[in-house]
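job 3f2a | input accepted
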Amino acid sequence: MIRALQVTDLATLARVSVNWAPGFTALTGETGAGKSLLIDAIGLAMGGRADATMIRTGAHRATVVLEVEVGPALAETLRGMGFSPDEDTLILQREVTREGRSQARVNGQPCTAGQLKQIGRLLVDLHGQHDHQALLDPLGPVQFLDDWIGEPAHQAREAVAEAFAHWEAARDRLRHQQRNERERAQRVDLLRFQVQEIDDAALTVGEHERIETLYRRLQHAQRIAESIQGALGQLADDEVNAQTSMASAKSALESAAQLDDTLTEPLAMLEESQTALREATRLLYAYSRDLDTDPASLEQAQERRDLIRNLHRKYGETDEAVLAYRDAAAQELLNIENAEADETRLRAAEAEARTALDQQAAALTSIRTEAAPRFATRVQEQLHELGLDRTQFIVRVEPVAISPTGADIVQFDFTANAGEEPRPSPRSPVVANSPASCWPSRSPVPVAPGCRPWSSTKLTPA
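job 3f2a | predicted structure (462 res):
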């Protein structure tokens, strides 16, 4: 039940505090005294629409604080939503500023207006010809029936909510995996191509430098051959060449060294030079013999050079970088293939979670279906006690898409007139004094102790 309401700077109300006592409370007063504003304040505290025009003239903000007593069952529901009542008390606070900003709190904890509205529906039922009514909320009859059943329904409903959250998480993980399937397939094709391209190239570390050297040699092979032939002619092939001149010089110096020991050192140097000259000549002959001047070899070297340069352009500036890219691509490919195996696992997990959810929902449906006739009988008895002897009240449990509240929707079929078939409770009470407006003015719905503290407030002009 509502314990207290504090209103500050709302419309014409500067500061008002109202304390509610257990039982029936009637608010009376002259027209314009503010009775409706108090109800508007309760609606604002329960997440109703906030507007800067609601603020009293001259004030910067309007504030509403609603203190409500809650029972154990409702407290457990609130804790499941992330809000913990202080013992048996819940305080809803709403503040609206002149700038149009709205702040909502539950027991001092910030929350959204939507959360406040959701909590408000569990706490208070405002009733009037055009006010929101729990019976008009599609979930209202479900809540009525579950509260009347009590602990068995609450426990089964909590099990369904937990199973639904588990299934929803498993479904979201699977959808995320499937959502990226096209991108993953494209990535697999690219990675496979890249790994295959590098593997087919059979690149080795240092090959880039070697192929560049080979390419330059083959590109200028003719000029190199001509230069070597000229050098060999000067060294050994010509009639007058370096080797014969070196031999003559050495022979002359040997004769002189026999006469003067100081010439021994120059003679030794000359002998070393002669040896170096012979080795250089040998190497040049070997180079000339092995020098490849075939245009086909040049074409082959150019193709290899272009291939390696293309790999460097695409995958890295060095041979090491290209090979490292290849290893990373192969590892990513392996990870994606493992992820495809994960999809099979996620699909199985989602199916298992859905099976568990269906089982919990079926158990809740069974509880509701068994209790529905007894609930209808009890309501019918109370309607007769009110003198409504011709009324008929039927409770239907119908299947709907599964949700955290189960796989059922509860429908109340009602008629107050003899000879008429019971019809579903109206969804939109737009006609004055219609059954939708009159139905809960004295609620005949029996509620189990400790469950939702429904309040019925009737305003009567003075």
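job 3f2a | Strands lie at 2-10, 13-19, 61-69, 89-97, 102-106, 109-111, 392-403, 406-415, 423-424.
job 3f2a | closed
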